[in-house]
TrEMBL record:
This is Copper-sensing transcriptional repressor CsoR. One of its GO terms (biological process) is negative regulation of DNA-templated transcription. InterPro entries: Metal_Tscrpt_repr, Metal_Tscrpt_repr_sf. CDD domains: CsoR-like_DUF156. GO terms for molecular function: DNA binding; metal ion binding. Pfam families: Trns_repr_metal. Belongs to the FrmR/RcnR family. It comes from the Bacteria.
């Protein structure tokens, strides 16, 4: 376990490539001394896009890794996956 489903991986990679372009655009905006509010608006857009990737990966993790631990009947693996999930949810900056 631990590998993303192929369709999710492809989707996330496409999103991350777009985000990478957005970040390069942000760097150019700063270099060009663009209006601060425009830069902040773009930063907000990048953060929102990253949150969507995060949500997609988290959903896949629950549907794939956590579900596998639950159906396996392995109590230790179940506790581990739930603890990991709670830790990462606690770190999510919302």
């Amino acid at each position: 376990m631990g590998h993303m489903r192929k369709d999710i991986k492809i989707s996330c990679q496409k999103r991350l490539n777009r985000i990478e372009g957005q970040v390069r655009g942000l760097s150019k905006m700063v270099d060009e001394d663009r209006y601060c509010i425009d830069i902040i608006t773009q930063i907000s857009a990048v953060r929102a896009a990253l949150r969507r990737v995060e949500e997609e990966v988290l959903k896949d993790h629950v549907a794939h890794c956590v579900e596998h631990a639950i159906t396996s009947g392995d109590k230790g693996d179940q506790r581990k996956k739930i603890a990991e999930l709670m830790t990462v949810i606690g770190r999510v900056d919302r």
